[in-house]
Protein backbone atom coordinates (compact mmCIF):
# COMPACT_ATOMS: atom_id res chain seq x y z
CA UNK A 1 0.00 0.00 0.00
CA UNK A 2 1.17 3.51 -0.80
CA UNK A 3 0.78 5.50 2.41
CA UNK A 4 1.11 8.85 0.67
CA UNK A 5 -2.16 10.30 -0.54
CA UNK A 6 -2.33 11.82 -4.02
CA UNK A 7 -3.16 15.52 -4.26
CA UNK A 8 -6.73 14.61 -5.15
CA UNK A 9 -7.07 12.17 -2.25
CA UNK A 10 -5.66 14.75 0.14
CA UNK A 11 -8.18 17.28 -1.14
CA UNK A 12 -11.02 14.81 -0.53
CA UNK A 13 -9.69 14.01 2.95
CA UNK A 14 -9.42 17.72 3.80
CA UNK A 15 -12.90 18.47 2.49
CA UNK A 16 -14.44 17.77 5.92
CA UNK A 17 -12.46 20.73 7.29
CA UNK A 18 -13.92 23.06 4.67
CA UNK A 19 -17.45 21.80 5.32
CA UNK A 20 -17.03 22.13 9.09
CA UNK A 21 -16.41 25.87 8.72
CA UNK A 22 -20.10 26.26 7.77
CA UNK A 23 -21.79 23.10 9.01
CA UNK A 24 -19.77 21.97 12.01
CA UNK A 25 -20.30 19.30 14.64
CA UNK A 26 -22.91 21.42 16.42
CA UNK A 27 -24.94 21.33 13.23
CA UNK A 28 -24.60 17.53 13.21
CA UNK A 29 -25.35 16.99 16.91
CA UNK A 30 -28.34 19.32 16.71
CA UNK A 31 -29.77 17.35 13.77
CA UNK A 32 -28.90 14.04 15.43
CA UNK A 33 -30.74 14.97 18.63
CA UNK A 34 -33.82 15.82 16.60
CA UNK A 35 -33.49 12.79 14.27
CA UNK A 36 -33.64 15.29 11.44
CA UNK A 37 -31.90 14.60 8.15
CA UNK A 38 -28.86 16.77 7.39
CA UNK A 39 -30.30 18.03 4.11
CA UNK A 40 -28.04 21.09 3.83
CA UNK A 41 -24.99 18.90 4.28
CA UNK A 42 -26.25 16.35 1.79
CA UNK A 43 -26.98 19.05 -0.78
CA UNK A 44 -23.55 20.52 -0.31
CA UNK A 45 -21.77 17.18 -0.73
CA UNK A 46 -23.91 16.58 -3.84
CA UNK A 47 -23.16 20.03 -5.29
CA UNK A 48 -19.45 19.48 -4.70
CA UNK A 49 -19.64 16.27 -6.71
CA UNK A 50 -18.91 13.73 -3.97
CA UNK A 51 -22.01 11.52 -3.95
CA UNK A 52 -20.88 9.77 -7.09
CA UNK A 53 -17.30 9.20 -6.02
CA UNK A 54 -17.52 5.49 -6.86
CA UNK A 55 -19.53 5.96 -10.07
CA UNK A 56 -17.85 6.30 -13.48
CA UNK A 57 -17.89 9.75 -15.07
CA UNK A 58 -20.20 8.70 -17.92
CA UNK A 59 -22.99 8.19 -15.36
CA UNK A 60 -22.41 11.50 -13.58
CA UNK A 61 -19.84 10.31 -11.03
CA UNK A 62 -16.22 11.08 -10.27
CA UNK A 63 -14.83 7.73 -11.43
CA UNK A 64 -12.83 7.21 -8.24
CA UNK A 65 -12.81 4.30 -5.79
CA UNK A 66 -13.54 3.09 -2.32
CA UNK A 67 -10.32 4.65 -1.00
CA UNK A 68 -11.61 8.09 -1.94
CA UNK A 69 -15.07 7.35 -0.50
CA UNK A 70 -13.43 6.25 2.75
CA UNK A 71 -11.25 9.35 2.85
CA UNK A 72 -14.31 11.52 2.35
CA UNK A 73 -16.06 9.82 5.27
CA UNK A 74 -12.95 9.83 7.45
CA UNK A 75 -12.32 13.52 6.73
CA UNK A 76 -15.90 14.54 7.57
CA UNK A 77 -15.90 12.39 10.72
CA UNK A 78 -12.55 13.90 11.81
CA UNK A 79 -14.60 17.08 12.26
CA UNK A 80 -17.50 15.41 14.05
CA UNK A 81 -19.76 15.13 10.99
CA UNK A 82 -20.31 11.39 10.34
CA UNK A 83 -22.57 11.43 7.30
CA UNK A 84 -24.09 7.96 7.66
CA UNK A 85 -26.18 8.14 4.49
CA UNK A 86 -22.95 8.14 2.48
CA UNK A 87 -22.68 4.47 3.44
CA UNK A 88 -26.05 3.03 2.46
CA UNK A 89 -26.52 5.16 -0.66
CA UNK A 90 -23.36 6.26 -2.46
CA UNK A 91 -21.19 3.38 -1.20
CA UNK A 92 -23.40 0.30 -0.93
CA UNK A 93 -26.03 1.05 -3.56
CA UNK A 94 -24.47 3.31 -6.19
CA UNK A 95 -21.16 1.48 -6.03
CA UNK A 96 -22.89 -1.85 -6.63
CA UNK A 97 -25.13 -0.58 -9.43
CA UNK A 98 -22.13 1.01 -11.15
CA UNK A 99 -20.22 -2.26 -10.94
CA UNK A 100 -22.88 -4.86 -11.68
CA UNK A 101 -26.06 -3.44 -13.25
CA UNK A 102 -26.83 -3.34 -16.96
CA UNK A 103 -26.15 -0.24 -18.99
CA UNK A 104 -29.88 0.55 -19.00
CA UNK A 105 -30.19 0.27 -15.21
CA UNK A 106 -27.07 2.37 -14.66
CA UNK A 107 -28.41 5.11 -16.93
CA UNK A 108 -31.80 4.97 -15.22
CA UNK A 109 -30.59 5.49 -11.66
CA UNK A 110 -27.03 6.73 -11.37
CA UNK A 111 -27.01 10.26 -12.86
CA UNK A 112 -29.85 11.54 -10.65
CA UNK A 113 -28.41 9.87 -7.55
CA UNK A 114 -24.96 11.34 -8.22
CA UNK A 115 -26.54 14.78 -8.59
CA UNK A 116 -28.35 14.39 -5.25
CA UNK A 117 -31.77 14.44 -6.92
CA UNK A 118 -32.59 10.95 -5.65
CA UNK A 119 -31.42 8.89 -2.67
CA UNK A 120 -30.89 5.19 -1.99
CA UNK A 121 -31.06 3.07 1.12
CA UNK A 122 -29.95 -0.57 1.45
CA UNK A 123 -32.19 -3.36 2.74
CA UNK A 124 -30.96 -6.81 3.74
CA UNK A 125 -31.96 -7.29 7.41
CA UNK A 126 -35.07 -9.28 8.31
CA UNK A 127 -36.35 -9.80 11.85
CA UNK A 128 -36.51 -13.59 11.63
CA UNK A 129 -33.17 -14.06 9.87
CA UNK A 130 -31.06 -11.52 11.84
CA UNK A 131 -27.34 -12.09 11.39
CA UNK A 132 -28.05 -15.22 9.38
CA UNK A 133 -28.77 -13.52 6.04
CA UNK A 134 -28.99 -16.93 4.35
CA UNK A 135 -32.40 -17.30 5.96
CA UNK A 136 -34.02 -14.17 4.55
CA UNK A 137 -37.52 -14.84 3.28
CA UNK A 138 -38.32 -11.76 1.18
CA UNK A 139 -39.08 -13.32 -2.15
CA UNK A 140 -39.36 -12.06 -5.71
CA UNK A 141 -41.44 -14.72 -7.46
CA UNK A 142 -41.12 -14.90 -11.24
CA UNK A 143 -44.26 -13.83 -13.08
CA UNK A 144 -43.47 -14.18 -16.80
CA UNK A 145 -40.41 -12.01 -17.34
CA UNK A 146 -41.34 -9.94 -14.29
CA UNK A 147 -41.33 -10.53 -10.51
CA UNK A 148 -43.70 -9.98 -7.59
CA UNK A 149 -41.84 -8.94 -4.44
CA UNK A 150 -43.22 -9.93 -1.04
CA UNK A 151 -41.66 -9.72 2.40
CA UNK A 152 -40.45 -7.44 5.19
CA UNK A 153 -37.13 -5.75 5.88
CA UNK A 154 -36.30 -4.01 9.12
CA UNK A 155 -33.90 -1.41 10.56
CA UNK A 156 -33.54 0.18 7.13
CA UNK A 157 -31.62 3.41 7.61
CA UNK A 158 -32.86 6.50 5.82
CA UNK A 159 -35.78 4.82 4.03
CA UNK A 160 -37.99 7.86 4.66
CA UNK A 161 -35.67 10.15 2.71
CA UNK A 162 -34.79 7.61 0.08
CA UNK A 163 -36.49 7.24 -3.27
CA UNK A 164 -35.16 3.73 -3.80
CA UNK A 165 -33.99 0.78 -1.75
CA UNK A 166 -31.45 -1.70 -3.00
CA UNK A 167 -33.17 -4.84 -1.74
CA UNK A 168 -31.55 -8.22 -1.18
CA UNK A 169 -34.25 -10.79 -1.94
CA UNK A 170 -34.52 -14.43 -2.75
CA UNK A 171 -35.80 -15.63 -6.09
CA UNK A 172 -35.57 -19.21 -4.77
CA UNK A 173 -36.39 -19.95 -1.11
CA UNK A 174 -33.44 -21.06 0.99
CA UNK A 175 -34.84 -24.58 1.55
CA UNK A 176 -35.04 -25.20 -2.22
CA UNK A 177 -31.45 -24.36 -3.24
CA UNK A 178 -28.50 -26.72 -3.65
CA UNK A 179 -25.96 -24.33 -2.13
CA UNK A 180 -27.24 -21.98 0.58
CA UNK A 181 -25.70 -19.03 -1.29
CA UNK A 182 -27.78 -19.75 -4.42
CA UNK A 183 -31.07 -18.04 -5.17
CA UNK A 184 -30.32 -14.48 -4.02
CA UNK A 185 -31.23 -11.60 -6.33
CA UNK A 186 -30.73 -7.86 -5.90
CA UNK A 187 -33.33 -5.31 -6.99
CA UNK A 188 -33.72 -1.56 -7.03
CA UNK A 189 -37.16 -1.01 -5.50
CA UNK A 190 -39.00 2.27 -5.94
CA UNK A 191 -40.18 3.16 -2.43
CA UNK A 192 -43.18 5.01 -3.87
CA UNK A 193 -44.33 1.99 -5.87
CA UNK A 194 -47.67 0.28 -5.30
CA UNK A 195 -47.37 -2.32 -2.53
CA UNK A 196 -44.58 -0.62 -0.52
CA UNK A 197 -45.23 0.59 3.02
CA UNK A 198 -42.94 1.64 5.85
CA UNK A 199 -43.16 2.02 9.60
CA UNK A 200 -40.71 3.79 11.89
CA UNK A 201 -38.51 1.67 14.18
CA UNK A 202 -37.78 3.86 17.18
CA UNK A 203 -34.09 3.64 18.01
CA UNK A 204 -32.36 5.31 20.97
CA UNK A 205 -29.33 6.42 18.96
CA UNK A 206 -29.18 10.13 18.23
CA UNK A 207 -28.52 10.24 14.48
CA UNK A 208 -29.99 12.37 11.73
CA UNK A 209 -31.12 9.19 9.98
CA UNK A 210 -34.03 7.09 11.20
CA UNK A 211 -34.68 3.35 10.80
CA UNK A 212 -37.69 1.82 9.10
CA UNK A 213 -39.45 -1.47 8.60
CA UNK A 214 -40.34 -1.91 4.93
CA UNK A 215 -43.28 -4.04 3.83
CA UNK A 216 -43.49 -5.35 0.27
CA UNK A 217 -46.85 -6.61 -0.92
CA UNK A 218 -46.77 -7.88 -4.52
CA UNK A 219 -44.46 -5.10 -5.69
CA UNK A 220 -44.04 -5.36 -9.44
CA UNK A 221 -40.40 -5.60 -10.56
CA UNK A 222 -38.80 -6.21 -13.93
CA UNK A 223 -35.44 -6.24 -15.70
CA UNK A 224 -35.31 -2.47 -15.17
CA UNK A 225 -34.98 -3.15 -11.41
CA UNK A 226 -32.41 -5.90 -11.55
CA UNK A 227 -28.81 -5.53 -10.33
CA UNK A 228 -26.64 -8.45 -11.41
CA UNK A 229 -27.95 -11.84 -12.47
CA UNK A 230 -31.09 -13.55 -11.20
CA UNK A 231 -30.17 -16.09 -8.52
CA UNK A 232 -26.52 -14.96 -8.36
CA UNK A 233 -26.92 -12.00 -6.02
CA UNK A 234 -24.73 -13.54 -3.34
CA UNK A 235 -21.72 -13.45 -5.67
CA UNK A 236 -21.88 -9.65 -5.83
CA UNK A 237 -23.31 -8.88 -2.39
CA UNK A 238 -19.89 -8.42 -0.83
CA UNK A 239 -19.22 -5.59 -3.27
CA UNK A 240 -21.70 -3.78 -1.01
CA UNK A 241 -20.96 -5.36 2.37
CA UNK A 242 -17.16 -5.07 2.34
CA UNK A 243 -17.26 -1.41 1.26
CA UNK A 244 -19.84 -0.81 4.00
CA UNK A 245 -17.46 -2.21 6.61
CA UNK A 246 -14.55 -0.18 5.26
CA UNK A 247 -16.41 3.15 5.10
CA UNK A 248 -17.85 2.60 8.57
CA UNK A 249 -14.34 1.89 9.82
CA UNK A 250 -13.36 5.25 8.31
CA UNK A 251 -16.26 6.86 10.14
CA UNK A 252 -15.20 5.30 13.45
CA UNK A 253 -11.57 6.40 13.00
CA UNK A 254 -12.68 9.95 12.26
CA UNK A 255 -15.03 10.17 15.24
CA UNK A 256 -12.24 8.79 17.44
CA UNK A 257 -9.82 11.50 16.29
CA UNK A 258 -12.46 14.16 16.75
CA UNK A 259 -13.31 13.30 20.35
CA UNK A 260 -9.67 12.73 21.31
CA UNK A 261 -8.88 16.21 19.94
CA UNK A 262 -11.69 17.69 22.02
CA UNK A 263 -10.46 15.85 25.11
CA UNK A 264 -6.91 17.14 24.62
CA UNK A 265 -8.16 20.73 24.31
CA UNK A 266 -10.40 20.40 27.34
CA UNK A 267 -7.89 18.73 29.64
CA UNK A 268 -5.17 21.21 28.68
CA UNK A 269 -7.35 24.07 29.95
CA UNK A 270 -9.17 22.55 32.87
CA UNK A 271 -7.53 23.02 36.28
CA UNK A 272 -9.10 21.48 39.38
CA UNK A 273 -6.07 21.00 41.58
CA UNK A 274 -2.88 22.94 40.79
CA UNK A 275 -2.20 21.96 37.19
CA UNK A 276 -4.25 21.24 34.07
CA UNK A 277 -5.84 17.80 34.42
CA UNK A 278 -4.20 16.95 31.07
CA UNK A 279 -0.84 16.86 32.84
CA UNK A 280 -1.88 13.71 34.75
CA UNK A 281 -0.81 10.41 33.27
CA UNK A 282 -4.13 8.96 34.42
CA UNK A 283 -5.68 10.99 31.60
CA UNK A 284 -2.75 11.01 29.17
CA UNK A 285 -2.28 7.26 28.93
CA UNK A 286 -5.86 6.33 28.01
CA UNK A 287 -5.87 9.14 25.43
CA UNK A 288 -2.51 8.05 24.02
CA UNK A 289 -3.70 4.44 23.90
CA UNK A 290 -6.97 5.42 22.22
CA UNK A 291 -5.08 7.57 19.69
CA UNK A 292 -2.74 4.69 18.86
CA UNK A 293 -5.65 2.28 18.37
CA UNK A 294 -7.51 4.77 16.19
CA UNK A 295 -4.47 5.31 13.94
CA UNK A 296 -3.90 1.53 13.69
CA UNK A 297 -7.50 1.00 12.64
CA UNK A 298 -7.29 3.83 10.11
CA UNK A 299 -4.30 2.17 8.47
CA UNK A 300 -6.14 -1.16 8.42
CA UNK A 301 -9.11 0.57 6.83
CA UNK A 302 -6.94 2.13 4.12
CA UNK A 303 -5.25 -1.19 3.47
CA UNK A 304 -8.66 -2.84 3.01
CA UNK A 305 -9.85 -0.04 0.70
CA UNK A 306 -6.65 -0.28 -1.32
CA UNK A 307 -7.07 -4.05 -1.79
CA UNK A 308 -10.73 -3.62 -2.71
CA UNK A 309 -9.91 -1.01 -5.34
CA UNK A 310 -7.29 -3.33 -6.81
CA UNK A 311 -9.99 -5.98 -7.17
CA UNK A 312 -8.21 -8.29 -4.72
CA UNK A 313 -9.95 -10.30 -1.99
CA UNK A 314 -10.57 -7.91 0.90
CA UNK A 315 -13.01 -9.80 3.14
CA UNK A 316 -10.60 -10.49 5.96
CA UNK A 317 -9.13 -6.99 5.84
CA UNK A 318 -12.58 -5.33 5.71
CA UNK A 319 -13.81 -7.31 8.70
CA UNK A 320 -10.69 -6.73 10.74
CA UNK A 321 -10.65 -3.00 9.95
CA UNK A 322 -14.30 -2.64 10.95
CA UNK A 323 -13.73 -4.58 14.16
CA UNK A 324 -10.60 -2.61 15.06
CA UNK A 325 -12.13 0.77 14.26
CA UNK A 326 -15.39 0.10 16.09
CA UNK A 327 -13.57 -1.02 19.25
CA UNK A 328 -11.03 1.82 19.02
CA UNK A 329 -13.75 4.43 18.60
CA UNK A 330 -15.77 3.09 21.55
CA UNK A 331 -12.65 3.37 23.69
CA UNK A 332 -11.88 6.84 22.31
CA UNK A 333 -15.34 8.24 23.03
CA UNK A 334 -15.49 6.60 26.45
CA UNK A 335 -12.08 8.07 27.33
CA UNK A 336 -13.07 11.51 26.03
CA UNK A 337 -16.22 11.42 28.19
CA UNK A 338 -14.14 10.55 31.25
CA UNK A 339 -11.67 13.36 30.53
CA UNK A 340 -14.53 15.85 30.40
CA UNK A 341 -15.90 14.83 33.81
CA UNK A 342 -19.49 16.03 34.19
CA UNK A 343 -19.13 18.06 31.04
CA UNK A 344 -18.77 14.80 29.15
CA UNK A 345 -22.52 14.47 29.56
CA UNK A 346 -23.63 18.01 28.74
CA UNK A 347 -25.29 18.97 25.50
CA UNK A 348 -22.99 21.96 25.30
CA UNK A 349 -19.81 19.87 25.05
CA UNK A 350 -21.59 17.29 22.89
CA UNK A 351 -19.20 14.41 23.58
CA UNK A 352 -21.72 11.88 24.83
CA UNK A 353 -23.72 12.36 21.60
CA UNK A 354 -21.12 10.32 19.74
CA UNK A 355 -21.16 7.37 22.13
CA UNK A 356 -24.35 5.62 20.93
CA UNK A 357 -23.22 6.00 17.33
CA UNK A 358 -19.88 4.25 17.87
CA UNK A 359 -21.37 1.69 20.22
CA UNK A 360 -23.81 0.78 17.49
CA UNK A 361 -20.82 -0.17 15.34
CA UNK A 362 -20.02 -3.07 17.65
CA UNK A 363 -23.40 -4.55 16.73
CA UNK A 364 -24.24 -3.32 13.24
CA UNK A 365 -23.96 -3.73 10.34
CA UNK A 366 -22.25 -6.94 11.37
CA UNK A 367 -21.73 -7.73 15.02
CA UNK A 368 -18.39 -8.18 16.75
CA UNK A 369 -18.98 -11.89 17.35
CA UNK A 370 -19.66 -12.70 13.71
CA UNK A 371 -16.51 -10.85 12.69
CA UNK A 372 -14.48 -12.79 15.24
CA UNK A 373 -16.09 -16.02 13.97
CA UNK A 374 -15.04 -15.04 10.44
CA UNK A 375 -11.47 -14.29 11.47
CA UNK A 376 -11.21 -17.53 13.45
CA UNK A 377 -12.61 -19.61 10.60
CA UNK A 378 -11.42 -17.91 7.40
CA UNK A 379 -8.16 -16.31 8.54
CA UNK A 380 -6.96 -18.69 11.24
CA UNK A 381 -8.43 -21.83 9.65
CA UNK A 382 -10.23 -22.94 12.81
CA UNK A 383 -13.42 -25.04 12.78
CA UNK A 384 -16.73 -23.27 12.13
CA UNK A 385 -18.40 -22.82 15.50
CA UNK A 386 -22.01 -22.16 14.50
C1 LIG B 1 -29.40 1.80 13.99
C2 LIG B 1 -29.40 0.61 13.07
C3 LIG B 1 -29.29 0.82 11.72
C4 LIG B 1 -29.34 -0.27 10.83
N1 LIG B 1 -29.33 -0.05 9.47
C5 LIG B 1 -29.55 -1.08 8.62
C6 LIG B 1 -29.72 -0.83 7.22
O1 LIG B 1 -29.65 0.31 6.74
N2 LIG B 1 -29.98 -1.90 6.42
C7 LIG B 1 -30.07 -3.18 6.89
O2 LIG B 1 -30.33 -4.08 6.11
N3 LIG B 1 -29.90 -3.44 8.22
C8 LIG B 1 -29.65 -2.43 9.09
N4 LIG B 1 -29.51 -2.67 10.45
C9 LIG B 1 -29.62 -4.04 10.96
C10 LIG B 1 -28.31 -4.57 11.52
O3 LIG B 1 -27.42 -4.83 10.47
C11 LIG B 1 -28.63 -5.81 12.39
O4 LIG B 1 -29.31 -5.36 13.54
C12 LIG B 1 -27.38 -6.55 12.76
O5 LIG B 1 -26.84 -7.17 11.62
C13 LIG B 1 -27.61 -7.63 13.82
O6 LIG B 1 -28.71 -8.46 13.48
P1 LIG B 1 -29.82 -8.73 14.58
O7 LIG B 1 -30.22 -7.41 15.14
O8 LIG B 1 -30.90 -9.57 14.02
O9 LIG B 1 -29.06 -9.54 15.71
P2 LIG B 1 -29.02 -11.18 15.95
O10 LIG B 1 -28.72 -11.83 14.66
O11 LIG B 1 -30.31 -11.51 16.64
O12 LIG B 1 -27.85 -11.29 16.93
C14 LIG B 1 -27.90 -10.83 18.29
C15 LIG B 1 -26.56 -10.99 18.93
O13 LIG B 1 -26.25 -12.37 19.03
C16 LIG B 1 -24.87 -12.59 18.83
N5 LIG B 1 -24.70 -13.58 17.75
C17 LIG B 1 -25.53 -13.83 16.68
N6 LIG B 1 -25.05 -14.84 15.93
C18 LIG B 1 -23.90 -15.25 16.51
C19 LIG B 1 -22.93 -16.25 16.21
N7 LIG B 1 -23.05 -17.06 15.16
N8 LIG B 1 -21.86 -16.38 17.02
C20 LIG B 1 -21.72 -15.57 18.12
N9 LIG B 1 -22.61 -14.61 18.45
C21 LIG B 1 -23.67 -14.45 17.67
C22 LIG B 1 -24.24 -11.25 18.52
O14 LIG B 1 -23.70 -10.72 19.71
C23 LIG B 1 -25.41 -10.39 18.10
O15 LIG B 1 -25.20 -9.00 18.40
C24 LIG B 1 -29.43 -1.59 11.36
C25 LIG B 1 -29.50 -1.79 12.73
C26 LIG B 1 -29.50 -0.72 13.59
C27 LIG B 1 -29.64 -0.97 15.07
Radius of gyration: 21 Å
Strand line-up in the sheet with most strands: 1-4-5-8
Remind me, CATH topology of the largest domain?
A: Butyryl-CoA Dehydrogenase, subunit A, domain 3
Give the strand content: 5-15%
What report would you give on this structure?
By secondary structure, the protein is α+β, with helices and mostly antiparallel strands. The chain has 3 domains: about 5-120, Butyryl-Coa Dehydrogenase, subunit A, domain 1; about 120-235, Butyryl-CoA Dehydrogenase, subunit A, domain 2 (Beta Barrel); about 235-380, Butyryl-CoA Dehydrogenase, subunit A, domain 3. It has 11 helices and 8 strands. A 4-stranded mixed β-sheet has the order 1-4-5-8, covered by helices on one side. Strands 2-3-7-6 form a 4-stranded antiparallel β-sheet, with no helix packed on it. Helix 4 (about 65-80) runs antiparallel to helix 8. The longest helix has about 35 residues, at about 235-270. The two termini are about 35 Å apart. The model has no long low-confidence stretch (mean pLDDT about 95). Flavin-adenine dinucleotide (FAD) binds near residues 121, 367 and 369.
Q: What can be said about this structure in brief?
A:
With 386 residues, this protein is of the alpha+beta class. The protein contains 11 helices and 8 strands. The chain has a 4-stranded mixed sheet with strand order 1-4-5-8, with helices on one face. The protein has a 4-stranded antiparallel sheet with strand order 2-3-7-6, with no helix packed on it.
Amino acid sequence: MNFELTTEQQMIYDYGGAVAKDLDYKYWTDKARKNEFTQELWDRVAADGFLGIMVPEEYGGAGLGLMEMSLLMEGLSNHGIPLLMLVVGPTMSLGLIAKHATEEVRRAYLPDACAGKTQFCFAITEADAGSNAMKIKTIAKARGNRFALNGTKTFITGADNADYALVVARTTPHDQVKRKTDGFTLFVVDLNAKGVEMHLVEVSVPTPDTQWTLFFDDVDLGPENLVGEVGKGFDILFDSLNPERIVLAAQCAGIGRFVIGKAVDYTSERVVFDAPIGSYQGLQHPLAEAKTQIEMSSLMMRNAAWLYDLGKPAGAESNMAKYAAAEASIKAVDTAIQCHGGNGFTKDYAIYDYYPMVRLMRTAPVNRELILNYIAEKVLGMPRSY
